[in-house]
Amino acid sequence: MKKSDKYRKYDAVFQAEALRVASESHSTQAAAHILNLNPKLLYK
């Protein structure tokens, strides 16, 4: 298994949706919970 295989890839549509949810949310924590993501990923 290559190192890159263990990381999830997100397509442009999901990334755009994540940015929209994060910008409309009161907190990054709340947006991450809605998207079922680690909050650190939204900062990247």
Oligomeric form of this entry? single chain
Uncertain regions spanning at least 5 consecutive residues: none
What's the number of structural domains? Answer: 1
- Fraction in helix: 55-70%
* Class inferred from helices and paired strands: mainly alpha
The proportion of strand residues reads under 5%
Number of helices: 3
What order do the helices and strands follow?
Answer: HHH
Q: Name the shape in a single word.
A: globular
The overall pLDDT average reads 82
User: What is the total tally of β strands?
Assistant: 0
Separation of termini? 25 Å
Query: Radius of gyration in whole Å, from Cα?
Result: 12 Å
Biggest beta sheet summary:
none
Characterise this structure:
- There is one protein chain.
- This protein is mainly α.
- The protein has one domain (10-43).
- 59% of the residues lie in helices and 0% in strands.
- The chain contains 3 helices and no strands.
- The chain has helices at residues 12-24, 28-35, 39-43.
- Helix 1 (12-24) crosses helix 2 (28-35).
- It is globular.
Brief overview, please?
The protein is mainly α. The chain is 59% helix and 0% strand. The protein is globular, with a radius of gyration of 12 Å.
Secondary-structure map:
Elements: H1 12-24, H2 28-35, H3 39-43
Helix pairs in contact: 1-2
